[in-house]
Amino acid sequence: MSTTEQTRTGQSEVRDQIREFILENLAQPKGITSFTDEESLMETGVIDSLGIFRLVAFLEEHMGVRISDEEINPDNLKNLITIESLVLKKRNK
Amino acid sequence: MAYILQQLLQRSAARYPEKLAVWARGKSITYGELESRSNQLAHLLQQHGVRKGDRVGIYFPKCVESVIVMLGIVKAGAVYVPLDPQAPPERIAYIISNCGIRVLVTRPEKRRLLDEATLASLDFSVVMDQFPEQSNGSRVIPWAVLQEYPGDAAPPVTLTETDLAYILYTSGSTGRPKGVMLTHQNALTFIEWCAEKFQITSQDRLSNHAPLHFDLSVFDVYNTLEAGASLYMVTEDLALFPARLAAFIEAQAITVWYSVPSALTLLLLHANLRAEKLQRLRTILFAGEVFPMKYLQQLATLLPHLELYNLYGPTETNVCTYYKVDRELLPTMEKLPIGIACENFEVFAVNDRNEIVTEAGGTGELYVRGPGVTYGYWADLEKTQKMVVPNTFQRNFEEKMYRTGDLVQLAADGNYYFLGRRDSMIKSRGYRIELGEIESALLSHPGVKEAAAVAVPDETIGCRIKAVVASHSGETLIAAELQKYCGTRIPMYMIPETIEFREELPKTSTGKVDRVQLAQESLQQPVMQ
Given Cys at both, which of A65, B170, B221, B270 links B242, Cβ 3.0 to 4.6 Å? Predict the structure, then answer.
């Protein structure tokens, strides 16, 4: 596998893992069974004031990144795409 | 003295026309603009047939226009009904029907969530950012049309303080939300107490954290207007992110903050609060649920320069008692009182022998009387008669009192302490939730045979909700499916986080679901990670 393909696989894995976590732990308990990668998770109510911290804990524990209080903001956590971006950016440091 | 809410705005607009009245999402309006836009909306509504006492729904996420709309509706002599922008459309449709709402002020993305039948039942909607499009069987008036109406004065209305100003819907135990009717007098009785007690001036900068369908927002909006102060609305982009919220409080130099305790707990735990950054904040008020003592103590220590108050009261009375936190006593207090009655309210506890509790240590159900108390629930005579009852302790003239359903204890110092509920109403994040409403939603699912909703204590938010369900034989149900189903009927914060399936539910000797046992079982379970 070429480096670019490896990176791409790594990327989609990260996104899939995040999607799965959010679906099972944040969305389903609120009666939401699906969401697109682009949809704002705050606007749809998937992420609420408690959910944010559970998501951050998951990212830190399972994705091996450290997220500061300032980074917990609507730009980074808006949707699956931005969350994945945040994780990859931190990993590549 | 103002006797109807719009006079608060009119007076402040005359004194401070150029002053910032409301801020939200980086946008703001002055008192002059708020006054003239609300006048225009009042004329528009009346000219399209809105009459005194008509209910007008407000259905869009919080923004500066929210306050224009609230005031425009009362200036038309009508009654505003704030609708939760995050509630499932079916619930909104129910409220529109139950309340006889024939006019909505809304946005296209909200309006399109409503079904055909509901839209057809409306006379018209005023829609913001409305582009010319099909009206779906109901007249649509673009917000932009407002400018064609006179803004210098409101249309004449024959309101008195005893007329309804707004109706707030709360969770109902029999499965459907109920509308608490509130008059101008109800709101002003409370606001006048606040203005005096908290000395709110035109220099103050109040936050508005609560959604507009929750009565905490009545404090924020109308105290601002009364004093000619400025209101800074907290929208979801801030509310969900404690660090951002703290930055907002600092940047907007908020002087008075009022919210449920859970919001303060989240700030305390995740926002790295610093007293130096919050020097302008002089008063923090909290209400709606019990504030865990350890978090209150930490907050008080962190912010030594400000005053803290615990406010108590159901939507039916807004706030009826208060307690100012005594910083000297706080470190050793185990429990915070709900305090003593606000001026122009009377409260008393009634024991099992139907006597008013007067001795220290006595316990009973808390009753409230005075001009701050609701007349009752919209179109629900049965519930009204059950909760808003004749004051049998006073025989000189007919009057009503409200039974809160809260059990309280009277202390030697005259303060009341909250003991618990008579029934199955719980608080989660300050939200009032009737377990019965959740159960009704579950039971309406064809596969569900029995259902019980249980509150599992949680130190941050008060309670989490768990459901125990028995399905009809032959049916396999999964939690995710039931949760999704619930989401079509009840707001997200009421959906059970966990659902346990059993063959059948434990019963008492009289054949009713044994809730006590279920509650005990849930206490023994491990805390959710």
Answer: B270
| Fold adopted by A3-91 | 1.10.1200
Q: What b/e readout covers B108-131, taking b as 16+ CB neighbours within 10 angstroms? A: eebbebbeeebbebbebbbbbebe
Mark the ranges of chain B whose per-residue pLDDT is less than 70. 131-138, 525-529
Are the beta carbons of B484 and A33 separated by less than 8 Å?
yes
Q: Which fold does the domain B425-524 belong to in CATH?
A: GMP Synthetase; Chain A, domain 3 (3.30.300)
Q: Give tens-digit pLDDT for B428-443.
A: 888 889 999 999 999 9
Q: What is the H or E stretch that residue B425 is in?
A: strand B425-428
Residue B359: how many CB atoms within 10 A of its CB?
A: 7
Q: Does domain B342-421 have CATH number 3.30.70.100?
A: no
Residues of chain A with pLDDT under 50: 1-3, 5-9
Task: For B473, list phi and psi in degrees, rounded to 5.
Answer: -60, 140
Which CATH number describes the domain made up of B29-159?
Answer: 3.40.50.980
**Residue spans per domain, chain A:** 3-91
pLDDT tens for residues B491-523?
999 999 999 999 889 988 878 888 888 888 887
Q: Cα angle vertex B21, ends B15, B27, to 5°?
A: 145
Alpha helices in B100-179 (DSSP H): 108-111, 116-121
- Residues 28-67 of chain A with CB under 8 A from chain B are 28-33, 42-43, 45, 47-50, 52-53
Tokens encoding B441 = 């939603």
Interchain CB distance below 8 Å, A31 and B492:
yes
Backbone conformation region of residue B273, classed left if phi is above 0, alpha if psi is from -120 to 50, else beta: beta
Which residues in chain B are classed under CATH 3.40.50.980?
Answer: 29-159
Whole-number Cα distances in Å, B260 to B100, B276, B382, B509: 31, 23, 30, 39
Find the CB nearest B492 among A30, A33, A43: A30
| CA B6 and chain centroid, separation | 20
Positive or negative, the CA dihedral B301, B305, B306, B307 is positive
Residues of chain B with CATH 2.30.38.10: 342-421
Taking CB atoms and an 8 Å limit, are A31 and B487 in contact across chains?
Answer: yes
Stated pTM of the model: 0.90
Enumerate the residues of chain A whose CB falls inside 8 A of the CB of residue B487. 30-32
> Which positions in chain B touch A77 (Cβ < 8 Å)?
241
**Cβ–Cβ gap B237/A42 under 8 Å:** yes
